[in-house]
Amino acid sequence: MPKGRTPMHFKTMVQTDVPQGRHGKHKHTITVILNDLDQLPDGAALKIPLDGLAYGKANVRSALNRACQKAGKNVATAADETYLYVWNAKK
Fold first, then answer.
1. How many CA atoms lie within 13 A of 15 on its CB side?
2. Domain for residue 32, yes or no?
3. Separation of alpha carbons 49 and 82, rounded Å
4. What digits encode the pLDDT tens for the residues 14-67?
5. Could you give the strand order of the β-sheet that contains 46-49, starting from the edge strand earlier in sequence?
6. Domain count, the chain
7. What distance in Å separates the CA atoms of residue 88 and residue 82, rounded to the nearest whole number?
8. If we measure between CA atoms, which residue out of 75, 70, 72 comes closest to residue 21?
9. Would 16 be classed as within a structural domain?
10. Cβ pair 50, 82 in contact under 8 A
11. Are 75 and 87 in contact (CB under 8 A)?
């Protein structure tokens, strides 16, 4: 190591190998929900079992909210002890 330099604390990699775009841990779940919402008839809601949400209701709701804002969708949610309900809200 050249004189006067401190050792690096982190590993390095080639910049072209850095993943581009954000594909968080909720991406698959949110993609499926958004796809189902696009096909949902008026007056209906998706009934999503909470035990099927690996990262919890609050985290999925937050990720869904971010995705809907980005896509310009207006959705509403509700939940009970067993299910998360999601539907297209009127604009």
1. 0
2. yes
3. 6
4. 988 877 666 677 788 999 999 999 999 999 999 999 998 888 899 999 999 999
5. 46-49, 83-88, 75-79
6. 1
7. 20
8. 70
9. no
10. yes
11. yes
Give me the pLDDT at residue 81, please. Answer: 94
Structural domain harbouring 45: 26-88
Write out the two tokens for 52.
Answer: 């099927």
The token pair at 23 is: 């594909």
- The pLDDT, as a whole number, for residue 18 is 79
Tokens representing 51? 């035990």
pLDDT for res 17:
82
| H or E element at residue 78 | strand 75-79
Tell me if 46 is assigned to some domain: yes
CA dist 33 and 61 (Å) reads 11
Higher pLDDT pick, 51 / 90: 51
7: in domain: no
